[in-house]
Amino acid sequence: MAGLPAQEDLALLGLLQLVSPALPIGAFAWSQGLESAFELGWVTQEQELGEWIDGVLEDGLGRCELPLLVRLQQAWAEEDAAALNEWDGWLKATRETAELSDEDARLGAALLRLLRSLALEPPAALMPETPGYVTVFAWVAHQRGVPLRQTLIGFAWAWLENQLAVACKAMPLGHTAAQRLTEQLRPRVVEVVAQALERPDAALGPILPGLALASAQHETQYSRLFRS
Q1: Which family does it belong to (predicted)?
Q2: pTM of the predicted model, to two decimals?
């Protein structure tokens, strides 16, 4: 009917709300090992930061969170509680440090609390016990009718913005330099999402030994701004 918002527009707005830095779940508090990469001297300037982010995007998100979002959103759509539990547990098992595990659990719990306050909580019969952030994110995307490709692009974009925000605070990185990196990495987001949509189960799993070492180092780092 004329005057009614199109369903795809509502889905897009719902995705923008979900990936907004203003979403009150505390994602700004985590650096995912990047702060330690600064402290250790692995990342010291703009080019190195771009290479670090590109590597984590391809060998981390592209092999782990993004293809898992595909499986989790499909499982929510199919009301497949067994698949939801399996993939949520699989994702928890890939977290190589206490901080990375804690981040996933805390962000998942925070997003779930927000959904409860908005009357958007997932069905209890389907929801894994203490679901992680990616699992809850997939529920919201399903509930709002976001297409799979856009779900992955939104998740990757939010992660990229957060990584650059971390660098602006801790590196420091100027905002103009952050925008240069955004321009450089936007096409890579699209490429990695396309790969993640086609990645088979046997090819899943992050390949990020450097990030794992940085994250473990961060647990005892003397001076820090972020929780990971």
Answers
A1: Belongs to the UreF family.
A2: 0.92
